[in-house]
Amino acid sequence: MLLDTRLPAQAYLDHIRRESARFGAVLAACDPAARVPACPDWDAADLLWHLAGVQWFWSRTMAQRPDGPPDEAARPPRADSYAGLLDQYAELSAGLVDVLTGLDPAEPAWSWADHVPGGQTVGFTLRRQAHEALIHRLDAEQTAGPDLVTPLDPALAADGVAELLEVMYGGQAPVWGRIEPGPHRVRIDLTDVGGSIWVRPSTFFGTHPGSGKNYDGPHVVVVDDPGTEPAAAVAGAAADLDATWWKRRGADGIEVTGDPAAYDALLAALSPPLD
After folding, report:
1. How far apart are CA 266 and CA 264, in angstroms?
2. CATH number at residue 245
């Protein structure tokens, strides 16, 4: 079965609220100097400030929709104590939930994702910020201690896998780029939610006209079920795949069958680090 992972807007908002609350609660009891395993340049205080800043950015963007991102000069300065950071995070996180509450997901709103269908809507931010909060909640737990790690919601994790493939590592080409399709199709089986996602590892070519940055390299495109056997199949629980491809855990429990070259092409597309 080809999997439709999308959740209702209210579900994304509820996940933002819950995951953000768990993130704050875990870090409130954590050593501020504890290192973040997935982002070793950060300590717990840096992680706290990171999500606070992300949630401020998107709360302001949603508040001034459909205009572009907020003026960085308006960004609040980082608190000079860990207790102050915790208070600042709580305020900024609540602000994101408040501004998103009751919004129509189809309403136009700026985002950086002009290569994604629906990327310029409130719904894109609801989805993106639910996954941002989920992964950083996992970061917070791993930072505070492995015994504090709690499960990822299977439905949200399944959508996290899809978002990684559709948005973070893949998607359609923007007007300034092109995609050269690769020869392989790979089926990703999410064993706990009973569905599959098909992808085609490809290559992206393009230089951003604004920044001048070149983005040539491996890419992945979600495709329809071709009705044929895949070159390779990847099977695992949604939470395991989501956390693994976000570089938050190893690949234990993920099974790969088929052509190694097809799987290697997928891994190449999923290799860049994500904060």
Report:
1. 5
2. 3.30.1050
Cα–Cα distance for residue pair 170/164, rounded to 1 Å: 7
Cβ count within 10 A of residue 156: 25
Determine the pLDDT at residue 57: 98
What residues make up the domain containing 199? 156-269
Q: Are residues 13 and 143 in the same domain?
A: yes
CA distance 225 to 35: 42
Residues 13, 142, single domain; the answer is yes
Give the end of a domain, one of 115, 148, 181.
Answer: 148
75 three-state secondary structure: coil
pLDDT at 115: 81
166 and 142 both lie in a single domain = no
* Residue 232 forms part of a structural domain: yes
Q: Are 183 and 198 in contact (CB under 8 A)?
A: no
Q: Residue 235 is inside which H or E element, if any?
A: strand 232-236
Give me the sign of the Cα torsion angle 173, 260, 235, 228. positive
**248 occurs within a structural domain:** yes
Return averaged pLDDT per consecutive 10 residues of the chain, 275 residues in all. 87 98 98 97 98 98 96 96 98 98 98 91 98 98 97 98 96 92 97 96 94 94 95 98 97 96 98 86
pLDDT of residue 2: 65
Phi then psi for residue 37, to 5 deg, are -55, -40
Q: Could you tell me if residue 181 is inside a domain?
A: yes
Helices within the chain (DSSP H only): 9-28, 44-63, 82-100, 122-144, 154-163, 238-245, 260-269
Domain boundary, last residue among 97, 114, 148: 148
CA angle at 160 for the pair 97 and 187, rounded to the nearest 5°: 160
